[in-house]
Input
Amino acid sequence: PTTYPMDEELIKLWIISNVERLGLAEHFTSEIEQVLEQVYKSYNTSEELCARPGSLVALQLQLHRDSLAFRLLRMHGYKVLPRSTCWFLYDEKIKNVIENNHEHFCSVMYNVLRATDVTFKEEYELQEAKSFSRKMLEKSILMGAGDAQIISFRKVIEHELGLPWMARLDHLEHRFWIEQNAANALWQGKTSSQRLLSLHNDKLVGLALQNYEFRQSIYKAELEELKRWSKDWGLSDMGFGREKTTYCYFGIAASCSLPYDSDVRMFVAKSGILITVADDFYDIKGSLPELQILTEAIRRWDANVLSGEARVIFDALDNVVSEMAMTYFKREGIDITNNLRDLWHETFQTWLIEATWIKTDHTPSMDEYIQVGIISVGVHNMVLPALCFLSPSFPSSKLRPVQYESITELLMILARLLNDTQSYEREKDEGKVNSVLLYLENNSEVDMEESIAGLRKMVDKKKEELLEHVLMDGINDLPKSWRQLHLSFLKIYQMFYNVSNRYDSDTEMVEDIKKAIYISPKIQPSKPLN
Output
């Protein structure tokens, strides 16, 4: 047909989704919120099942609209029930229709699967919807290998199936959609009567490309400055361990879609570099007496007794702490120097404890290990000071060891477990303790794969819990920007440790770094929908 029935609310939702995944949401904040507020007022959030649509097209439209609305509303903090998008699971006839016509439901099932990205703890309906939609998409790819329209959508589906949303960094996601040109984003199958010809899509993509390249210009300049800093302070040529200046910057720069300023990116990256170098010094280079001396010097914040690598680490850390404290003082009129020093001393103390375990052949209990390990992973040394430079600013009274918010504790646990599930082989060779190895030792009936699987189940539950803390108001009293930064850090760790230890690899990150910072997206002309 030359004309197609349109659903006004679905079109608005699709436009918002497209704007967000192109990386343009920050330019349309008020417009997005206004539309979502209207959608929420009319959205079905009751416990009652939706009425069954009377036709194939009506079913497509309703599922598409409900899944898009659910994901967008949840991502923006609205309280919506899983059943509002999972209602089709309760009608076997509808499930049969979808299964028997799966080639017409690719776009619908794609959006149902994306809706399950925002699953909270014990939301079993969404877990079932995830399994069902994945099954349908996998079947469509397999059965539609020769269908031109399925081929055109294949890359989008494979991207969704192949890499969890939590492991995708926002900046690279924006690039993916710019390059895809958001082509056929409302495509639903070869006989679908719903098509959206995005007449202004090329203008949006052009704006997104300019936005992306503008960010790249900033990132290139900041990374060069960071490399100079790392070299000037002697951190890039320590002669041992891992040199991860570029990785540390890439992680924070590519993970945040919000317009955080340069101070946040640079302070986080410098802290990440220091954590990597100091952790390696405690693990593989320093003797126990040297480590004890360095830890005590950090406690007293006095470098007079230090020399060599220990002095390099202290001086670089002192530079970062002083720079952070001065920047915060200029903004807020409060001196946080001692707060930052105490935060770092706590982490150095845990590195000393872990080094002592190695050098004395002590095996801690799992509880003892986790208590130490969530500090030694160092994520709080990056996220908490970074919050000080957001708006509103993180109060100095909260920037203290031990007194961590529940959302921060969840992030610390997740960072440790994600790291452990991919670094246990290296750490076993180095004689280090690791939660995977401890789990295996404490459960003699399981093998290594089962040990890792057990920890991953724990990780999945904690991620769902943290996601709820991030997206929903009322669970804590933290501003949305603070919560969102916690999610950004979780995505960094999930990206580094999703299926391998990419952080320790010298090659796995190279292409992503080039795409994020150096190479402009390649734009293909939009393909018309026939």
Observations:
- Residues 45-49, 184-197 have pLDDT under 50 and may be disordered.
- DSSP finds 22 helices and no strands in the chain.
